[in-house]
Amino acid sequence: MADIILGIESSCDDTSAAVIRDGWLLSNVIASQQVHKDYGGVVPELASRAHEQNIVPVVSQALEKAGVKASDLTAIAFTRGPGLLGSLLVGTSFAKALSLSLDIPMVMVNHLQGHILANFIREPGKPVREPSFPYLCLLVSGGNSQIVKVSGPLEYEILGQTIDDAVGEAFDKCSKMMGLGYPGGPVIDRLAKNGDPKRFQFAKPHIPGLDYSFSGIKTSLLYFVRDRLKEDPEFMEKNKEDICASFQKTLIDILMDKLIKASKQTGIREITIGGGVSANSGLRDRIEAEGKKRGWKTYLPEFKFTTDNAAMIAIAGWFHYLAGERTPLDVAPVSRMADF
Asked: Residue 303, exposed/middle/buried by CB under 10 A (0-12, 13-18, 19+)?
């Protein structure tokens, strides 16, 4: 009998529901919240209220698109954390209610684990291309920057991580600093395509081991822009494409230096990326270029699976379900999770 898993994702500002059958994606519905753009970042209270409005229609649409009924479901996978507590509470509460009404089990999922396993989402009519274990995952988003060794669907070891800010946070804050808007990553990536990545130089941190640091580059950009604007008030407008290209290249250099080091230390040549920043075209191009140069097998998730989505929660939940894991109804969402 097939396992049909409903995935629910509500960790931040996207309400999403997806249905998979034995690892094959049947539907993936996402309701995004546009209200946060006016505030330059996600407002937790507004996010949780929007989730309350979206959760029922999003789940209903996911089931309809998948061509299944709620009574056909085998289990419900949901994001327990990390994320915004109010947002997580909406998804968790809905999963509990549906679990009780259908008398089927729940399976909690770490949001980051979903990003790590996104390459295992199978879609009808598309070729299956999945990394072999063990592989390295460069997990990069607004809240995380990690190099993770993945020895199995549920076996993880963090080899390196940021000691301060995440790379996605650096993109967003520096975009705001330059007056380019929110979210910053896509804006900087778009402008960088028409800029000279070698024109300006920004400070790179010297952190031992495989850990990252991105707080220094933000300060470097701040002083750079401040000093140039004193000389020419129109400097930013005249040079924003070159600034974005140079800034983005510096961030990618920092990420890749440690990933290359991790591959050499472990001998692992199966390389994946995941998280919101994995949609960055500069990073994707660099990963593929380094792969050809170093004999890596590289795996890039489709763009629709780089942002927060329930398909990745459903596939992760399916692996947990196959391992016999079940989540009790008294579980509570958590804004931070110590491990995977």
From this structure: exposed
What region does 316 belong to: left with phi over 0, alpha with psi -120 to 50, or beta?
A: alpha
Superfamily designation of domain 4-127+305-322: ATPase, nucleotide binding domain (3.30.420.40)
Burial of 102 (0-12, 13-18, 19+ CB in 10 A): middle
Tens-place pLDDT, residues 173-213: 889 888 888 788 999 999 999 999 999 999 888 899 999 99
Token representation of residue 288: 């593929």
Task: Specify the residue for token string 């519905």.
Answer: 29
Phi, psi torsion values for 336, nearest 5 degrees: -130, 145
Place of tokens 């990545």: 197
pTM, full prediction: 0.93
Domain-by-domain residue ranges, the chain?
4-127+305-322, 135-303
> What is the identity of the amino acid at 108?
M
Q: Cα 273 from chain centroid?
A: 9
What's the chain's average pLDDT? 93
Burial class (CB in 10 A: 0-12, 13-18, 19+), 114: buried
Determine the angle formed by the axes of helices 215-231 and 167-177, rounding to 10 degrees. Answer: 20
Token pair in block for residue 29: 């519905």
Q: How far apart are CA 107 and CA 117, in angstroms?
A: 16
Residue pLDDT, tens place only, 11-48: 988 899 999 999 999 999 998 765 545 555 667 778 78
Interatomic CA distance for residues 321 and 311, integer angstroms: 15
What is the Cα–Cα distance from 171 to 11, expressed in whole angstroms? 20
Q: Which amino acid is at 71?
A: S
- For residue 94 the two structure tokens come to 């809905």
CATH of 135-303, one of 3.90.70.10, 3.40.50.300, 3.30.420.40, 3.40.50.1220: 3.30.420.40
